[in-house]
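Example record

The entry below shows one chain as it appears in the dataset: sequence first, then structure tokens.
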Amino acid sequence: MSDVPASVSGSVRDHVPLAKVAPPELPAVVVAETRAARLLAGPPAPVTVLVAPPGAGKTVTLTSWLGSTPTLAGRVAWATLDRNDNDVASLWTTLLAALRANLSLASDHGIAELSSAPTAAGVDEALIRQLGVLIGPQDPPFVLVLDDLHEITEPDALASLELLLRLRPRGLALVLAARYQPGISLHRLRLDGSVREIGPEDFVLGLEEAGQLLASLGHDLEDEDVDALWRRTEGWVAALRLAASELQRGADPRQVARTFGGTTPTVAELLVVEVLDHLPSETREFLVGTGACRELTPTLAERLTGRKDAGAMLEELHQRNALTTRLARGEGQEPVYRYHDLLRGYLGNELQRTDLPRWRQLQGELASWYVDRRQWRLALEHAVGSAEQDRVHAVLREAGVGMVLDGDGPLIERLLDDAQGTWRKDPVIGGLLAASALARFDAVTADRHLAAVAVAPASTIDPAGDPWLSAMRATVDLHRARFSSEVATALRDADIAGVGDTGDVDLDLLGLIQSGVARVRMGSPAGSRRDLERALHLATSTSRDFPRVMCLGNLGALATLAGRIPECDEHLETALQIARRRGWDGSQLTAQLHVLVAWWALLRGDRSTARREITALPPPPTLGNPDMRVAAAALTALADHLDGAPARPTAIRLRSAWDQLGDAETTPELACMLIPWEAKLWLAADDPVAAEEAARRREPDLDGSAEELLLRVLLARAKGLPAAKARRWLTPAHTGDVRARFAVNRIWVWLLAAQLAAEAGSTQASYEALTQAVRSAASDHLIGLVDAFGPAAKDLLAANRGRFGRHEGFVTELLEWRSTEVAPTAALALTPVEEAILRELPTHRTMADIAELRGVSVNTVKTHLKNIYRKLAVQGRREAVEEARAQGLL
């Protein structure tokens, strides 16, 4: 069988296999559409240049484009170049053979007039004019694809291609594909706008595109697994296909998502064959010597390798698209380069395997480099890699507290997860591991770290010996005590150790946050406010936004307890502005902020704001803070109740919210916030037994509070206690002799006092208590809170209408406000906009595509999607489609 059409001369048949001059077949499973595919779509440009690293999908993208463009059918010639084409004669032999392999050109007698190869003198204008005559002024143009053009480096061969570009016949479109920028000038083409350039970044798959690719390969993974693989592969198509191969062999998707990397055998083979084997040996050695770095400058590369030309080598790797990227930097700054994460993983593993001492020595060098530049995350990572305990101790002593404050506790735990047992006994290392665990509310793990630390309890440490260590340990112990009943002892020890007054800004900041929160438990709101405001000042003055948001959230919570609602609003608004600017909104850090905003919105009867804030919360089970897990679930139930859900189902959901706890403990203030609502709902559902069980569930938290008296009277009255006697029981809470831990609960106390007085025939006393409730509620527009008390409150307000002076407008608005005990409505139904977006979910459109289609921002689409998922009670796009189909919505 002959390799090329019969019209081709024997010499060409002997030298050019058909595989080199035939377009590759499109694979059965194509790559999800990328930006490169969109840029390429449609009629060809006069010249198109595609440059991307190996495995990016250049060839598949080109093949797909040619196959999906009907006007190009039969009008394409394809040449796949290799190192054997790296001279003028061989190059043009292959190029002309590609033209002859096209059936429409092969039938033209003029094709025989073209030489089978240029002479040794090279390509001249006559040959290209002859080519132009053959092709003619076609529209659409004939397309000649030169794939793997990076194989051509010989100057005369490149010059011949430049001549072709300069004299390109009007009926010919050229497509040049290479791993790196070919050595030909494109300047004139750029000036006259006749070149379309598609670069490496255009071939990178986005998150949704990566998920679509994996799904097309038969792997419909959970969103978090897709996200992990996308991050590890950085959207590199070849790597994602290898991940799919691992899954095809039956590997657990979660395990693949967690461990897939440069040391995966198939990935290592890809890197060696497609990248490293194409580099000179000295370049490979340079890569191994610098592969431990996440980012590196020429100066750092020179320090690690001793090479004066390190900067030139990095730039060469970048220009060759050897999985090396030059990051954007300001004018006059030293360039910074970054290796692909998979390449870095392979290089690091290779050096550890072949020369472990050198690996550890390089890790120590890097740790020192980043310490000098106060880049603590990288300093700690490389200090751990050096296997030197003293180096790790020094980094954590200098910066560990600040890292915990900045939310890097999980990083500390991850880096030290496999640390030697002797390291964990180090008081600094063990103490900061405990602090990191406590920052994510894991007291069990913190106890394990504290038990391993070979340091006496903080109360027995001599501050003169190491005051910093004493204060650090006391701070950690105080944080731990917040999860137990030992707060008083821990606060005393903290004061002895000088917590908050060490002169170390980071340690004082962490200590003041802990003491500020702890003093609330000890009934000292003034002391709590003092410490938290000092902490806020330190965070603000040192531009520490993460602890600043923490302080503002805690001050907002403190203002909530005290009923200082405008102050709370101000703190929460400032904190959310910072969080949104820093990209933290929707994280664990902002959960407390959204819970508090939603809570006050519900009390004000602002359903839309409450819904918006609840939607911004992560799913309750994923929240680390036990208070927030319960509060988020409870708020969702109460929001549905204000939208018309009946009392009993809402009460059941409130009871279930406490199941979010597991073995964790919550603060007493949370019980004072939620239990009265739950009991009220059970009573509204005519189930006093369940109401009593709710009151008993958190009895120790309510002990000695006005909330305890409120519940006691409500339950006793439901059992038939006379109104007069119930009034006497309630009197200490009514008069303020027994304090409400959650200040606005006094409004319910006054409303109950008014109800009982009216039932006992004391009209004036009823009016006076009712006036107290109205005066307090009106100042902050707490319509939802008064309404939630039930019909008795509205009956009393209606009976006394016209007697509330300047608050009469508030009373009128409240009486006209929708009752909580209305029939269920379609509040949870999808809006028309949400229905329209839902109909897009079964398609392969990305969120950006949907946004463009509807003329809105991507963030708006995300908000609608969150609402759709909440209303359908699902977690992601695939589940939403399935549930919508089950409900007949699709």
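Notes for this example: Residues 468 and 504 are 8 Å apart (CA to CA). The two ends are 55 Å apart (CA to CA).
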